[in-house]
Structure formats: C-alpha cells, structure tokens
C-alpha cells in the first residue's frame, strides 16, 4: 500500500500523519521533540506507523464486540510500550546510582527508586487495564514524571534520601530514555499485547494481516519549527503556516480563520475557500502565553497539563493576570496565591491571559471570520477554549468554533496533504 | 462633602471606560456635542467656547483589555495609542463628534491619520503647535491654526462664539489652572494631606466633566482636606518627571508613595496646566491665547527648547521650586519624547548633585515590584544618608 | 553588486569618489575654514547650505554607514551606557555613540564639529531631540525650522508662508552668521537648477522598474541610487554627473533585458515583484537582500526611497521660486505625508509597477515610519487586492535582526503567493 | 551590643541571619539559614528559616528584625529595607573591597554600585524578561539532566562553548534542544549559557561604570561556572581598561539578609528610641 507522510517538527512536540493513496488519514504519531529532532521525527514516524497498522487491524475487524476487544488490545499495546520504557528508566537509574557512588546511602537509594518504580508500574497496569482510562498526557515523560514526583515526595527523607536526589536521578535518566529509539518493533509488542488480552485468537488473523501489509512510503513533507534541520530536499519542506492553513481546511472545509497555539509560538492565519493562506501573523522572539507557559504552570502546581483546564473551569471569578511571560509564570502564580486568590480563579485568569494575547494576533491578521478553527496543543485545553469562545463572542459576535480532538496534528496533516500532492 | 466621597466620585469617573458622565451631559443637553483630545496640549478653551464638551482621552490604563488595539501597533510602540484605538474600536468613544491630535510625537501624529481612515465621519484634526520660539513668527502661525480650529469647531457645533464668549472661556480656564496651581502648592507644603493618588484622581475626573464642575470639585476638596487632615510620615520628597502623555497606572503612583516617597511635583496630565500664566483677557482672544502658548508654555519634552541652557537647568529649577530631595524619571516604555529627554535632564540634575532614579512603565503595568524596589531603595538611601 | 559584477559600473565608482572626497573635505574643514552645517536627510536644504559655501553633515547617513560597517552595535552600547534608553531611535544612539567614540566618520576620517545645527523638523519628532542632544555635545548654535505636517493631506498656503518666513527670518540669518557669508539668491538658483536635472534622471532610474524584468532593485539597490541626492550632493555638478551615468547604465540594462545585480547574482528571472514600505535594516543589509533575491523576489518600488524627497509625482526643485520650492520640498518628504497619503502612494505603486505583493519592514527605531504600519498593511491589502507581509527588524541595532524569524516570515509569505497563484490558475 | 536579625524573602528561597552588631567594631554573623520555598506557603518557610536561625544562634532576644526582599508583610518585623540597600551593605560586610554587587536570584538579576559605606550609587536591573536568572539555569539543568550543583564544574570543563543567541529564556531552551540534537556536549552547552548570562551581566556592570571589586551575591554565586564566565566577560569588555575583580563568599546567598540586619542595627541606634518609635515611622 502506498502512503505519504507529513511531519511537523514542533518546538515541543513532533507529530507525524500518514495518508493512504486516497488522502485519507491512516495513522498519527506524536512524541516530545525535546531533545533531538532527527530522533523525534523517527519516533513520531514509527508511532504513526504503529497507529496505521492499528487502523488496518480496525478495518479488518467489524462488530461491536471486536471493537471493544480492539480497544483492549490497543491499551495492552500501550502498556507494553510504557513498561518497556519504565524498565529502561529503572535500568538507567541503577547505573547512575552506581556511577555516583553514594557509599553507605547507596542501597537505600536503590531501594527507594525500586519502590517508586514498582508503584508506578502498578499504577500503569491499573490505568491501561481499565476499560475507560482517564484522559492524560500521552507522553511517557509526563505520565511517569508526575507519578515519580509524587512517590518521591512521599518517601523522601530530608535527612537521608532527599527529594532533590531522587528528582535529580530521574531528570538525568529520563532524557536518555526519551533519546533512545525503542528497539521493540510493532510485531514483538503486539505479540506480547495479544498475550495480555483474553481471547486473542479472534484478533490474530486481523493483526497478522495488518502487520504484514507493506506500507510503502511514497513521499514525505516536513514542516514546523525544526523543519530546517530535516534532511529533506527543499521541495519537501513547507512553511508551517501553509501547513496549518491546509490542515485546518482539510478538517473543516468551511474554515476561514485558524488560530494555532503551540508550545512556543502562536499563529493566526486567514485562509480562503480552498485552504490557501491569505494572511497570517505570528509571534516570535517572545514565548509569552504559549503552550510552554501552561507547562510551567503545571510544573509549578505539580499537576499534569491535562488537569489545568478542568481546574480552571471550576473558577467562579477570573483573576486578572498581566504578565504571560512564560518564565515568570510561576512567580505570578505564587504572588497571586499569597494574595489569597483561589487556584481555580488564578488558573482561569491565566487561561484568559493566554487567549487575550492570541486575540491580538488574530486581530492583527485580519480578525475572525466564520468558520473559526482552533488548533495546536492548547486547543486540547477546555479552559482555553472556553476563554476563547467568550472573547470571540464578545468581540466578533457568534462564530462557529471548530475544534478537533486531533487538532495537535493539524500541521502534520497539512504537510501530508502537500506530500500527497507531490506524490500524485 | 467629605474627602472620601469626593475621591470616590472622582474615582468613579476615572474607572468608567464608557464615559458615562460625558454621555449623561450630552443627553441632558440635546443637540450638544463632545470633542475629544489626546495628550499633551489642546486648546480646550475653544472647544468650550463653542458649547462643546472637551474630553481628555488618556488611554485605557490597566482596566481595558486590549483585543483589537494590538492589531494596530507593534510591540515596540508605547501602550497609549493601542488602548485609545481599543476604546474607539469597542465603541466606547462613539459619543465623540471630533478628535484632536496635538503634535506630541510621531505616534500621536500618525494616529491622526489612522483615525481619519477609521472614522471618516468624525471631525479629526492634527494640531501642529508652533515649535519655534520667535514670537513674531510663532504667534501669527499659532493664531492662524487656532482660528482654523475655531472655525471648524464652530461649524461642528453650529455656534460661532462671540468675542465675549471666547473671553469667558479663557477666563474660566484661567480659574481652573489657578485652582490646579493651588492644589499643587498644597501638596507641596502638606504632601500627607494631598496624597498623589487623590490629586491624580481629581485631575482625571476633570478631563471628562465640564470645567465649571471641575472647579467646584477642587474647591470642595480644599475644604475637605482642611477638615480631615492626615498624619505626616517620615518620607522623602521626590518629583516625578516623564509621565506627561501615557499615564502611569494608579498602582504605580501608590507604589511610589508607599515605598516612602512623597511626590511633591509631577507632570501627570500636564496639558491641564500647560500655560503657566493667566491668559490675557483684554485684546483679541485668539491672539491672547496664541501669545500665551508661545510665551508661557511649561517646559516639557514635547516642545523644542530654544534656550541651550534650558534642559540643563530644568530639573534643578523644578526640584528647588518643589523643595524635593530627588527626582524619579518615570517614562512610558517606548516613549521617545520622554526617553530622549531623560539623559539631558539627568545630566543637568546630576550636575547639581540631585539624586535621580529612572524607570519605565506602561499604562497597564500590573506588577509593581520592580518599581517598589527602586523607589524603596531611593527612599532608603535618602533616609539612611540623610538628605541627598 | 561590486563583487559579483565583473567590471564596476561607472556610477558606482563615481559615487565612491564623491563620498570619499566629501569626507576628506570635511576632515580638512578645520584647516580650510569651510563652515560645517549638520542637518537631516528629510528636509535637507542642501542647495541653501551649499550656497553659503558650507559643507553638510547628515548624521543619519553616518549612522546607517556605521550600521553597514558593523560598528553601530558598539556605538549604541556606548550611548546606552551614557544613559540612553534601549527603547529609542537607534540612529540617534548610534550617532551619539560615534561622537563619544571620537567622531570618526564611517570612512575613517575625522568629522569636524558643526558651526550650525540646522534642525529641519520634517516628519520626525525625534529630530528635535536629536539636535537638542547634539547641542549639548557641541555647544553650538542651532536653528529650528518647523515644517508643518500634512495633517489634512496638503501643504496649506499659510503653512508655506510660515516656512518661507522662517527661512527668511531665521534660517538664512543663522546661516549668514555661522558662515560669515551673505545670502546669495542667484547662487541658490544655480544649485536648484542642477538639483532639478539630477531629479529627472533619478525619477527615470526609479521608474525603470516598471519594465519586466526590472533592471533595478528599487529598494535594496535603490538605497545606493538615492544616496547622493538624499545627502550632500543634490544640486552639485558631481550629483548631476552621477545621475546621468546611472541613468545610462540602467537604460542599457533595460535594452539588454537584464534584471538587477543582487548579492546572489543577476536576477533575470523575476519570480515575484514586490513593493516595500519602511527603511531597511543596515546591519545585515546584504543578508536581508539575499533573502529576497535568492527566492527570486525583486523590489520594484519602495517608499523609503522617497524620505529625502518625493519626485515621482512631479515635484522638482524650481529655481524660479527658491524659498517656496524649498518649503514645498520639505513639506513633501515621505514622512511628512499623513497616513492616508502613504496608503494611497503604496496602492499606486502596486498598481503602476504591477507588483505581486508588498512587504512592510517595520523598524523598531522609527515611530515616524512604524506607528500605523499595521493598519497600512490592512488598508493596502484591501485596496490593492494583493497580500502583504510584515517583517520586524531595526535600522542599525544588530540586536533586533533575527535572520531566522525574518526568513521564516518571508518564505511563508512567498509560498503563500505561490499557493494563491496555483489556486487562481486551477 | 545589639543583636539583630535579617530576613530576606526571595522568590526562590527565604534567607534568615542573626548578627551581633557591636557599637564599635565589625558586625559578626552568628547564624544563617536558608530554606527553599518550592511550592510552600511563604509564611511557613519564613517561620522555618527564622526558627532555625534563631535557635542556631542561641539567642533569646533580638533588638531589631529587619526584612528585605518580599518581606514587607512579615508581622514580627521591626522595619523593612529594600533589596538593593541590603545587598550592597551585605556585600560590603562579606568583602570590604566590594564596590558593586551583582545579585543573581531566582527570577531577577541586578547590579548595584556602591561606595565604601554601602551607599547605593546606582543600579541596573534586568527587567520584565526572566532570561538570565536562576530559574532559567535551573530549567536548563533539568533539561540536560544535571543537578544544580554540578552545573558549575561541568561548565568549567567546556572546551568549545556554544553560542546561545535567544534573548528569551524559553526560546533559549529551544536553542539548547537544538544543541543537544546536534550532539553538542553538556559542558559546552552550559558554558555557552553561562557566557550569554555573563555577557548580560557584564553589560549591566559596564553601564554602571563599576570600578573595584564586583561581589556576586544571591543563589547563583555558588555557580563556579558562571563566576568564571563573568570574569572572562568583564575582561573582554574592559577593552584594555581596568578589569573589575570578581569575588564572592560562602555566605553570598545571605548577603541581603546580612545587610538588612546591619542596617537594622544602624537604624536602631540612630533612632535611639527603640522599636515602637521606629515602627510608627516605618508603617505605611
Ligand atoms: N491538555 C492540554 N492542556 C493544555 N495544554 C496542552 C494540552 N496538551 C498539550 N498542550 C500544550 O500544547 C503544546 C504543544 O502543542 P503543539 O501544537 O504540539 O506545539 P509545537 O508545534 O510548538 O510543538 C505543549 O506545550 C502543551 O503545553
Ligand atoms: N548551589 C547552588 N548552585 C547553583 N545555583 C543555586 C544554588 N543554590 C541555589 N541556587 C539558585 O539560586 C536561586 C535562588 O537564589 P536567591 O538569591 O535565593 O533568589 P531569590 O532571592 O530570588 O529567592 C535559585 O534559582 C537556585 O536555582
Ligand atoms: S523570558 Fe518571558 S518575556 Fe522574556 S522573551 Fe521569554 S517569554 Fe517573553
Ligand atoms: S507616550 Fe510618548 S511616545 Fe507614546 S504617544 Fe505619548 S508622547 Fe508619544
Ligand atoms: S525616528 Fe525615524 S525618521 Fe526619526 S530620526 Fe529615527 S529613524 Fe529617522
């Protein structure tokens, strides 16, 4: 089967989208871009291919019951991946402990880390074992990181194995875990996953068929912040503005205005009825009010990114926030808390502040036209969406606001569409 | 009326971004119109004489959320014009029939052209004040400009004021300026009784109510502070220079005083006391007003200083007059007039061993920690090292 | 450009010589006793200054030259150390820094002190502060020439009179006093006559960009072409000779169907024709130009080339009305035109020069240009029906040139024009 | 003899000292304690640091409790001094040759010039933007997976430092990511960051026209890599002129608190009336 790929090398995340010959999406993959673009695109690609194979399995499998089973298989697959990474993390930490020579403290440190890993493992098993696992970040770093933090805080001892020590070990090793490509292929993981679910025979044929399908990559287009570092020919690189415009148009053909809030930049784009960009504005130089900002806030509050939105939604009185400097985020938060403001209200204010910044760019790019599509990682955040909806209503009147659960893939989708054009 | 209720009333006007007081005035007097003006100096006398209400537009402060204003300005342009545009674009200035853009700087000058494009139905005029000092050339030019403006305003209001009416307006504004001088004098001698926050709120109120009402307000404030004196504090005395156009947020003014500095002179809203002497009331009103500007305009960054020594002595003169211990240069970020003037003024001050500090603000600055730190250190050092 | 063209064009050699001569004359001024007058590019009354036998110095030109020679960063730092704010016009700071560092001209010669600061207050507020600051440095006489702004889009008759009166009663007496020479109106007329000749040739050169391909880059290339006439050579015989030579060269290129020389070679395949608004960045000038040229983008008209005088709408210096023509000239400089007027101009250029789009280079320094450009962007897009791009940089502050950002924006913009073309043809 | 305390409430940590300030003679540090705030209630951290310092000093009466930094609202304080006043005095105490302090804290950095009595003569702060602060370095360290205490020595081991160009702390993070992905090693990255920070600091200091010793206070004083980069930067920017010496002290993180305690003693004597009188003039 011939397919094309679009890769969006974002400043915080790297996304890949695979299209089949008809231009239909068959797979998506995402990873942290944090440490290495080349690797990130390799990981995103392999994730997307794994996802594509799942879709192929899904195409084979019909009927309610099998769908549920398919879900279980997918979760088992994810658990396999996670446990693999967790095991690797543990291994690396052990090595690091060895290297650092804690002396007498050594065994205690080792034991502490062991118990943390154990606890995380249990948590992960429970998470993926549940029929309806709660929403959370799909990144290993985020998911495991917050659990690690939690357990480390719990068992740390200011006089012995300190929190800082435990955290230091984690920080040191998580990078390497992220930087190592997973050597387990689809085949091996899926086999293990099949073993985990009951009644696998039902699935085996579909899986076999999917696994053996040749996915033949006809063309790849790269876009995004890191696109210049991709080893692609110039024709295969597109500006992220164009890709976002086209991607949004593909998801919602009525789109005229696109707002994308990513990790470090915000873009406001106007497109015409065929998805061609007519004007755009982006912020650069200053990362205030972008996705990373929320990341800092989440770190500061010791919460997961995905928990921020729901908490802000509980606010009854939005606090006015002035500075959206990403680095000052924590300070602003502390200052407000010390003034006795409630977390919910501060969070609501922070979200509003982010959207206010975006409103400026939107205004600069030419305002908001029906339909309006919100993309990028921050579009996953309901409080941001809420603030946006309010501000759009107040200032531009009622507009259709499109948000896709896959909005983070918009740029990659646009890239893949360009690839599709190039290929045909 | 007590101090508190006067200030509360003033604060209400200051806080009201919809200019309800102006709207009320217009609805009470059907057929009348209001004309806005931007900083720094506009001849409000002429607006008043035509039966129009002059309304000072000084930005939106920290209370207006900028949604569309940023679409008009890059990040490296001061904050004032974007909030003015925001006010305009959100319909909050729709009660104005005209807007005057004084020659303050390139930003306001260019804004006049933008306003023309944005609001083709409004009367928009760029006011090119004379920058040269030679009275024989400057006065006739300025008189011509004033006449042009007066004719336009008269057309707008449908009423061409007689010479006596003009003279009456000049006289009224003489009174207003005299009252403001008295207010400043009171604060100079008893800064604890006239906190700068209160003085400021009063003046802001004066920018959107008729001058007659403003006069009454100041008079009642004078009575109130005599009735309710405050306790003096161990503060240092400073003058604040550089905030003649974009206005500092109220929080900043409070921060300076809380950090231990009494403000004993400032150039906030300097347009309302731009003419330092009474305008002559005998003779042709327009030429009297023109002459007054050319001869008696206050020294400020937006007017060319013809005297080469002027910039060097400006701060010393102000500090002496106010009996201050030091100077705080508080300029709006990206404000060319204030910031380009600062090194000259500062050199002049330092030549006389006048301690100075400088900071930049924006009308919507929300965090005052930096200012507090600087003003606090300033007052610390004045206190710890006694005097200068 | 020099490196890429096999033999240097005659005009280029001439220009180099003129400039070198001028700086040498300036260096020798203390010995020769030639009076020196500092003034600004917009509203520079070179003919008048020259008619008094004085040598002009244009601080902006020094600043931009310092920028091109990578010296401005240090000068700016010097000025900031002396108390100047990071926020203000970097031309001023570059100039102040240059003075503090010994007042060495960009060509390495020493610059003399001014005998007079002729403050022609034309379309820029900052000029006023700049000369107040210079007066502090030099402690020399200053004369203020107030050019009223075209607030309502025209130079009103009273304003013209006001300017002429100032010229007669303030500027000329100040020049007489500073130079010790009498005002000689006939000499002034001679200079004005030469000005008009050079202006004709300049207009022909700039309008050659209407050809396809355009033989010149009317922004990056043209900043060299306007150099002499915007600075010290308007009204001089050298100026006339330069523009004659330049015009001939450009006409030869047209005849040969050649595109402009750019840092990346001769651009014959003009993929995009653009109009540019705003001054260029000087510190990374070639890099900036290359970003355009390497994508096949050529500039066919620009507003920056009108800051020292707008000639393409018919104005010429008129020897019949010496003072009146100086007033008209000052009032008509680009930055003295109000925003609706600037929008009209851009729209005209886009139509007349058949541009595919326009780029606004917004410089942090210059409020006179920058305040309002975002609105111009939208107005021009709306009226001309072509897309615009908005780029931010600075004149001479190397800290504000982010090549990656600018490249990203420009690339996105040009790809957008492509996509629109494809969309239109599909 | 009088015993005073100084409490410096920062954005990253609360520092508390107890000092013996004899009428004649040099003040003497009796005890110092600092507690990282790390998401805790500031009031609790203040209590913790205060209790720890006072008990370590073993005193039961303190004549004057002076706060500085964000400590204006501490209820048991006698008076408040602003950060630059106290850092100047504290630096002078720790190094009498100091004529300037560079205080690099969690979020802000500032340079203060002073005379031999600790009188503030001028200052410069980095404004608005958090780049070039402790928090920034902390983030980068986390990225690179090294602990804060390793940063300095790693940076010293650099052989070919990478240039970091972004002004914004967050965008600098991206620069760092790119470096990692280009295979640049950790020491070279850290040194690059140190150099970019040091460059900013050198500019701050140069704009103050500092002569004599520059004392580095605040949390980052213990970062030997930054100190080395700062020395280099100052030498480079001196352009043949005199190069200021860079100095610091083990107690540099407590400089603000120390300065506050010393000024407290000064005020205590100057007013001569004790606490009540002082308080009434100080309260706002
Ligand atoms: N549930 C969520 N809530 C808030 N923000 C989120 C959520 N999920 C992702 N993000 C934000 O999205 C950003 C990544 O968005 P993305 O569009 O991929 O950015 P980029 O393309 O710049 O890498 C992250 O910085 C993260 O803060
Ligand atoms: N040993 C250390 N090495 C390097 N940096 C340190 C060390 N200890 C603390 N820091 C840094 O110092 C900063 C706190 O400094 P401090 O001067 O207390 O700041 P503040 O006064 O703003 O709280 C923190 O950001 C921390 O990263
Ligand atoms: S540190 Fe903050 S304010 Fe500075 S550029 Fe970065 S995000 Fe913007
Ligand atoms: S604040 Fe300054 S720069 Fe801004 S409009 Fe006013 S005078 Fe002009
Ligand atoms: S503000 Fe603009 S026009 Fe004025 S001096 Fe600076 S660069 Fe020139």
Account of the 3D structure:
The complex is a heterotetramer of chains A (about 425), B (about 400), C (about 425) and D (about 280). Chain A has about 425 residues and is α/β, with parallel strands linked by helices. Chain A is built from 14 helices and nine strands. In chain A, the strands form two sheets. In chain A, strands 7-6-5-8-9 form a five-stranded mixed β-sheet. Chain A starts with a strand and ends with a helix. The model of chain A has no long low-confidence stretch (mean pLDDT about 85). The longest helix of chain B has 27 residues, at about 165-190. In chain B, α6 (about 135-155) packs across α11. Chain B is built from 14 helices and eight strands. Chain B has helices at about 5-15, 20-30, 45-50, 80-90, 105-120, 135-155, 165-190, 195-205, 210-225, 250-260, 285-295, 310-320, 335-350, 370-385, and strands spanning about 35, 55, 95-100, 125, 235-240, 260-265, 325-330, 355-360. By secondary structure, chain B is of the alpha/beta class. In chain B, the strands form two sheets. Chain B has a four-stranded parallel β-sheet with strand order 2-1-3-4. Chain C has helices spanning about 10-30, 45-50, 60-70, 70-80, 90-100, 125-140, 155-180, 185-205, 220-230, 235-255, 285-295, 320-330, 340-350, 365-370, 375-385, 405-425, and strands spanning about 35-40, 55, 115-120, 140-145, 260, 265, 270-275, 295-300, 355-365, 390-395. In chain C, α2 (about 45-50) links the parallel β1 (about 35-40) and β2. The longest helix of chain C is centred in the first third of the chain and has 23 residues, at about 10-30. Chain C starts with 9 loop residues before the first helix and ends with a helix. The model of chain C is unreliable at about 1-5 (pLDDT under 50). With about 280 residues, chain D is an alpha/beta fold. Chain D has two domains: about 1-90 and about 255-280, 2-Layer Sandwich (Nucleotidyltransferase, domain 5); about 95-250, 2-Layer Sandwich (Nucleotidyltransferase, domain 5). In chain D, a hairpin with a 4-residue loop joins β6 and β7. In chain D, α3 (about 135-145) runs parallel beside α5 (about 170-180). The chains are: A alpha/beta (about 425), B alpha/beta (about 400), C alpha/beta (about 425), D alpha/beta (about 280). Chains in contact: A-B, A-C, A-D, B-C, B-D, C-D. The interface of A and C includes residues 240 and 280 of A. The structure holds adenosine-5'-diphosphate (2 copies) and iron/sulfur cluster (SF4) (3 copies). The site of one iron/sulfur cluster has 13 residues of chain C, from α6 and α14. One iron/sulfur cluster binds near residues 60, 89, 124, 126 and 366 of chain C.
């Amino acid at each position: 089967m011939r397919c094309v790929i679009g890769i969006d090398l974002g400043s915080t995340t790297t996304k890949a989208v695979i299209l089949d010959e008809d231009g239909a999406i068959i797979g998506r993959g995402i990873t942290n871009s944090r440490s290495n673009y080349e690797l990130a695109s390799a990981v995103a690609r392999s994730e997307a291919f794994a996802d594509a194979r799942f879709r192929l399995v899904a195409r084979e499998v019909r009927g309610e019951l099998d769908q549920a089973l398919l879900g279980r298989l997918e979760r088992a697959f994810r658990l396999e991946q996670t446990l693999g990474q967790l095991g690797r993390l543990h291994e690396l930490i052990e090595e690091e402990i060895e290297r650092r020579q804690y002396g007498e403290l050594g065994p205690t440190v080792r034991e502490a880390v062991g118990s943390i890993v154990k606890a995380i493992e249990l948590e992960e098993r429970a998470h993926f074992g549940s029929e309806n696992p709660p929403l959370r970040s799909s990144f290993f770093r985020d998911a495991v990181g917050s659990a690690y933090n939690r357990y480390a805080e719990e068992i740390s001892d200011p006089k012995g194995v300190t929190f800082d020590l435990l955290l230091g070990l984690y920080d040191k090793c998580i990078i390497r875990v992220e930087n190592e490509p997973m050597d387990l292929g689809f085949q091996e993981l899926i086999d293990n996953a099949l073993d985990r679910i009951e009644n696998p025979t039902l699935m085996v044929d579909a899986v076999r068929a999917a696994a053996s399908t040749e996915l033949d990559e006809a063309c790849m287009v790269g876009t995004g912040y890191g696109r210049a570092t991709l080893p692609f020919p110039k024709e295969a690189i597109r500006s992220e503005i164009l890709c976002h415009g086209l991607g949004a148009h593909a998801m919602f053909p009525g789109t005229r205005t696109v707002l994308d809030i990513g990790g470090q930049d915000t873009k406001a784009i106007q497109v015409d009825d065929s998805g061609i960009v007519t004007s755009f504005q982006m912020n650069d130089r200053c990362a205030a009010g972008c996705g990373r900002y929320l990341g800092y806030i989440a770190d500061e509050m010791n919460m997961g990114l995905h928990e921020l939105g729901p908490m802000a939604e509980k606010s009854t009185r939005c606090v006015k926030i002035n500075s959206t400097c990403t680095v000052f985020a924590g300070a602003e938060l502390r200052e407000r808390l010390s003034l006795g403001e409630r977390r919910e209200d501060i969070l609501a204010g922070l979200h509003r502040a982010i959207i206010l910044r975006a409103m400026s760019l939107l205004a600069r790019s030419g305002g908001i036209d029906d339909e309006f599509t919100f993309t990028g990682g921050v579009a996953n955040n309901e409080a941001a969406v809420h603030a946006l909806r309010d501000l759009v209503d107040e200032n531009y009147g009622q507009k259709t606001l499109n948000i896709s659960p896959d909005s983070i893939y918009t740029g990659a989708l646009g890239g893949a569409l360009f690839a599709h054009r190039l290929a045909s | 009326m007590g101090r508190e209720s006067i200030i509360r009333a003033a604060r209400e006007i200051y806080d009201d971004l919809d200019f309800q007081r102006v709207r009320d005035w217009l609805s009470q007097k059907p057929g009348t119109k209001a004309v806005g003006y931007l900083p720094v100096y506009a001849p409000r006398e002429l607006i008043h004489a035509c039966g129009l209400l002059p309304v000072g537009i000084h930005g939106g402060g920290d209370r207006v959320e900028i949604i569309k204003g940023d679409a008009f300005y890059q990040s490296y342009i001061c904050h004032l014009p974007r909030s003015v545009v925001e006010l305009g674009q959100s319909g909050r200035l729709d009660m104005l029939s005209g807007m005057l853009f004084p020659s303050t700087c390139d930003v306001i000058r260019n804004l006049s052209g933008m306003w023309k494009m944005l609001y083709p139905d409004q009367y928009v005029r760029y006011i090119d004040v004379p920058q040269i000092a030679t009275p024989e050339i400057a006065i006739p030019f300025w008189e011509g400009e004033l006449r042009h403006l007066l004719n336009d305003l008269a057309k707008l209001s449908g009423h061409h004021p007689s010479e006596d009416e003009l003279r009456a307006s000049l006289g009224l504004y003489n009174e207003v300026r005299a009252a403001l001088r008295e207010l400043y004098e009171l604060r100079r001698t008893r800064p604890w009784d006239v906190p700068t926050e209160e003085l400021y709120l009063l003046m802001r109120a004066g920018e959107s109510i008729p001058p007659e009402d403003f006069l009454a307000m100041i008079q009642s404030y004078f009575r109130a502070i005599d009735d309710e004196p405050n306790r003096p504090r161990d503060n240092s005395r400073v003058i604040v220079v550089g905030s003649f156009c974009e206005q500092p947020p109220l929080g900043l003014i409070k921060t300076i005083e809380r950090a231990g500095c009494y403000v004993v002179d400032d150039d906030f809203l300097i347009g309302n006391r731009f003419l330092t002497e009474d305008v002559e009331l005998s003779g042709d009103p327009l030429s009297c007003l023109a002459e007054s500007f050319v001869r008696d305009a206050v020294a400020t960054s937006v007017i060319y200083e013809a005297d080469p020594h002027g910039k060097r002595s400006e701060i010393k003169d102000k500090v002496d007059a106010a009996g201050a211990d030091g100077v705080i240069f508080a300029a709006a970020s990206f404000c060319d007039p204030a910031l380009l003037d600062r090194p000259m003024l500062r050199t002049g001050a330092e030549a006389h061993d006048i301690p100075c500090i400088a900071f930049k603000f924006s009308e919507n600055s929300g965090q005052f920690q930096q200012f507090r730190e600087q003003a606090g250190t300033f007052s610390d050092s004045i206190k710890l090292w006694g005097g200068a | 450009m020099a490196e890429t063209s096999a033999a240097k064009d005659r005009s280029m050699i001439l220009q180099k010589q003129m400039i070198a001569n001028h700086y040498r004359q300036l260096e020798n001024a203390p010995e020769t006793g030639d009076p020196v007058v500092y003034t600004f590019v917009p509203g520079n009354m070179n003919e008048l200054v020259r008619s008094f036998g004085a040598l002009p110095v244009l601080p902006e030109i020094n600043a931009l030259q310092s920028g091109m020679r990578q010296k401005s960063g240090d000068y700016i730092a010097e000025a900031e150390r002396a108390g100047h704010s990071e926020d203000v016009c970097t031309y001023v700071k570059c100039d102040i820094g240059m003075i503090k560092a010994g007042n060495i001209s960009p060509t390495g010669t020493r610059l003399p002190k001014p005998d007079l600061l002729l403050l022609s207050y034309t379309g820029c507020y900052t000029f006023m502060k700049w000369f107040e600051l210079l007066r502090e440095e030099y402690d020399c006489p200053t004369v203020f020439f107030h050019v009223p702004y075209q607030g309502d889009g025209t130079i009103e008759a009273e304003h013209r009179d006001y300017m002429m009166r100032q010229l007669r009663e303030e500027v000329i007496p100040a020049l007489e006093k500073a130079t010790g020479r009498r005002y000689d109106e006939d000499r002034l007329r001679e200079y004005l006559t030469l000005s008009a000749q050079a202006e004709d040739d300049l207009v022909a050169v700039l309008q050659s960009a209407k050809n396809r391909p355009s033989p010149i880059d009317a922004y990056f290339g043209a900043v060299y072409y306007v150099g002499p006439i915007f600075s010290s050579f308007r009204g001089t015989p050298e100026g006339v000779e330069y523009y004659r030579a330049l015009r001939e060269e450009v006409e030869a290129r047209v005849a040969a169907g050649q595109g402009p020389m750019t840092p990346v070679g001769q651009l014959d395949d003009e993929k995009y024709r653009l109009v540019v608004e705003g001054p260029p960045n000087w510190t990374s000038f070639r890099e900036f130009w290359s970003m355009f040229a390497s994508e096949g983008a050529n500039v066919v008209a620009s507003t920056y080339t009108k800051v020292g005088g707008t000639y393409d709408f018919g104005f010429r210096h008129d020897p019949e009305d010496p003072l009146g023509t100086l007033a008209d000239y000052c009032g008509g400089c680009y930055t003295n035109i109000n925003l609706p007027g600037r929008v009209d101009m851009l729209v005209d250029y886009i139509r007349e020069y058949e541009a595919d789009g326009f780029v606004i280079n917004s410089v942090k320094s210059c409020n006179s240009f920058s305040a309002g450009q975002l609105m111009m962007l939208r107005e021009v897009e709306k009226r001309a029906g072509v897309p615009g791009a908005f780029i931010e940089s600075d004149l001479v502050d190397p800290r504000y040139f982010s090549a990656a950002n600018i490249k990203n924006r420009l690339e996105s913009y040009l790809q957008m024009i492509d996509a629109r073309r494809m969309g239109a043809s599909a | 003899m009088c015993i005073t305390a100084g409490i410096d409430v920062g954005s990253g940590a609360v520092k508390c000292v107890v000092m013996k300030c004899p009428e004649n003679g040099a003040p003497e540090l009796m005890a110092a304690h600092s507690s990282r705030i790390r998401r805790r209630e500031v009031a609790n951290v203040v209590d913790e640091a205060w209790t720890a310092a006072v008990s370590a000093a073993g005193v039961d009466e303190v004549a004057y409790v002076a706060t500085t930094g964000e400590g204006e609202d501490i209820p048991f304080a006698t008076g408040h001094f602003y950060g630059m006043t106290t850092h100047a005095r504290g630096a002078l105490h720790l190094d009498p040759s100091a004529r300037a302090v560079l205080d690099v804290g969690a979020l802000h950095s500032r340079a203060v010039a002073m005379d031999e009595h600790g009188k503030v003569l001028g200052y410069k702060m980095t404004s608005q933007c958090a780049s070039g602060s402790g928090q920034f370095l902390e983030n980068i360290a986390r990225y690179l997976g090294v602990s804060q205490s390793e940063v300095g020595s790693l940076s010293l081991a650099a052989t070919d430092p990478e240039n970091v160009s972004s002004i914004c702390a967050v965008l600098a993070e991206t620069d760092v990511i790119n470096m990692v992905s280009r295979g640049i090693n950790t020491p070279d990255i850290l040194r690059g960051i140190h150099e970019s920070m040091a460059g900013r600091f050198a500019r701050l200091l140069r704009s103050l026209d500092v002569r004599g010793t520059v004392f580095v206070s605040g949390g980052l004083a213990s970062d030997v890599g930054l100190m080395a980069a700062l020395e280099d930067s100052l030498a480079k920017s001196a352009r043949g002129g005199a190069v200021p010496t860079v100095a610091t002290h083990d107690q540099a993180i407590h400089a603000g608190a120390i300065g506050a305690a010393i000024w407290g003693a000064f005020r205590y004597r100057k007013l001569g009336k004790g606490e009540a009188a002082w308080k009434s003039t100080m309260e706002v």
